[in-house]
Structure formats: C-alpha cells, structure tokens
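Researcher: Go.
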Amino acid sequence: MKILLAAGGSGGHIFPAAAVAEEFYRGETAHARDGAAACGTEILFVASRRNLDRKILRDAKYRKIFIPANPMPHRIGWRLLVFSAKLAVESLYALCILARYRPHVVVGFGGFTAGVMCLFAALFNIKVVLHEQNVVPCRTNRLLDRFADKVAISFTETKKYFRNRIVVFTGNPLRKESLRECRPEAIRKFGLDPGKFTLLIMGGSQGASSLNHLISNSLGMLPPEKKGCLQVIHITGPRDFGKFEDFYRKNGMQGRVFGFVESINEAYSACDLAVSRSGAAAIFELAVFAKPMILIPYPSRRNNQRFNATFFAEKKAAICRNEGEIREEGMRDLIMELVNNTDRRRELSENARRLGITDGAERLRDEIKKTAAPAG
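Model: Structure:
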C-alpha cells in the first residue's frame, strides 16, 4: 500500500503527520529500503522547502519530497496574483508526484502543502483523508472538505464545521518519543536543580518573539529572592536565541535557552509549569504529561490557536490569556500565583490529563488503512 502524507509550513502540521508515519513503520525491519516498511506499506512525505520542515524530517527513514512554500493570502491584492502564479508551478509539482508515485491514499494535515496535493488527488480519483488538528478547521481543510473521502478530527467539537459524510474522532496524533517521561534524565541533561521550580516557555516550532519578550520582561520584574527560586527552560526559536541567553545571565537567573528542542519530551518532563502558544500538538502533548499550562494564543483573529486555548480553559485544563490584554506585571503575578499555589496547579494538571490522548496516531493509521482498502 502506498500512502502520501502532505504537511508543511509549521510543526503543528508536520508533527502529527510524522507521528502517523511512525505508526505505519512500527516493527519495520532494519533492512527496509526506500521507504518500504516491513508491513508492505510505503510512505512518501511531501513537505515544504522551509528550513523548519527539513529540520523536523531530517532523520526520517521514509521518502521525502520538498516543494515550494506558497501560502494563500487572506486578502485580495498583489499577493493573490503572486500566489496564483506560484500555484501553477506548485500544481505541476503535485501532478508529477502523483503520476510518479501513484498513491492509494493521500492524507492532508492542513496548510498550503496539503492543499494542492489533496485537491489533485481527488480530481484523479485517489482516496483523500484529511486530518484537522484544531478546534476550528483551517482554511485548507474547509475548502477540501467536499473532496475528501473522510475527515479525522482532534476535538469532538470540530465535527460541526464539516459537511463530509464521514467524520471520525481520532484525537491529535502524537509522536511516541514526545510522550516518554524522563524527569531525572532531563533534569541532568539540562543541568537543572531538582529542588527548584522549573518553568517552561515555548512559542511553538517557529518561536514567538512577542511571547518571548512578554514572559522574559515579566520575569525580569521579580525581586532577586524570587528569581533565585525559579529556573527556566526557554525555547525561543532560532531568531531570539542569543538575545535571551544574555537576558538570563544579566538578570542572575538560571535559564537554559534553546532555539529548538528535538527531544521535547525532556522539556515537558523537567517542567512544573508551562507557558506556551496553543498549537494543537503542544497542548495535547502537555496534556498527556499532565502539566499545568498558561496558554497565550498567537495574536491574530485568523489564527485558530485562540479557540484551542479557550477550549482548554473552559475544561479548566489551562489558564488562557490573550497577548494584547495582559501586561507584564499581570503575567508576573499570574506565574507567581501558580508557583505558590500547589492546589491550583494540581487541579489544572488533573483536568489536562483527562484531555490527553496517547493513541491518536494509531487511530488515524487505522482509519487511513480502511480508506485505502479496496471496496468489498
């Protein structure tokens, strides 16, 4: 069976697709070559040419093809003309890939890379499965809904947004290595004090400069004795890495700063509280680890992170704050309130655990198999 996975542009799309690929390859023999798994399944992963995509998929054993990134603009204007011109080239890539690879099913995880691959697959009568990671579907999956054979969702509430006759709840596929608890090992690896409260700050796979500055400025306002009680794992993204190394050194705080962390389970294992954007992959991984969260969605009306954060907040599994509505003093006070309130953290932790789904990748794998199987 040949399966084409299409995802690119952000970790929120790529990580779930990679998790599903892993499930197909579980039990693969060491001698399988060219993307052929021991079970007879062959995976082709189509991603964008962005550096992030290449970095995440660098060590993957299945075939990978990287096509030009061409996000759809939100407004009519000159960007739409550029998009249309690039779309013609991207369409040729899609046609060539489909003609050469001849997949039994194409699985799209949202975003511009998935859009063109799934559309042409449907036009050529190839089975199409969509996976939606967020509460409110992205534009790509909304547009592709009518062409898909099946839609899989991460939140049960998402079903109302699709008209597809087959919508299944799988949860969000999570990579197995991202779920492995390893606190003692992680504390040693990061060089942390096991007796100190550990704060994890992360802005998603591409970082978030405004979030980095909001949290660091808030921590900088703490009195010296409070700074000494905290230690920080700060995943800044590649652009802000050096700047925030200097910040922690100048403020006399114990901070471990990273542009990107590949073994994210180590950061989850080591922390006592996470401050994060609310991409689906991050919040579901934190939920599996039962970590109390402060979620600060990406500040855009068109970004679906705010709906994810609101959902978790309504379930009392996280505290949600909008970036434009909270000042540094308020963030400082909120962090310290949770540092000092064990009962509140425990409540958030227990509610988060109830939302965590560890077998989303297996569920989606099984749905893909059913869709790809010939009728009768």
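Model: Residues 29-38 have pLDDT under 50 and may be disordered.
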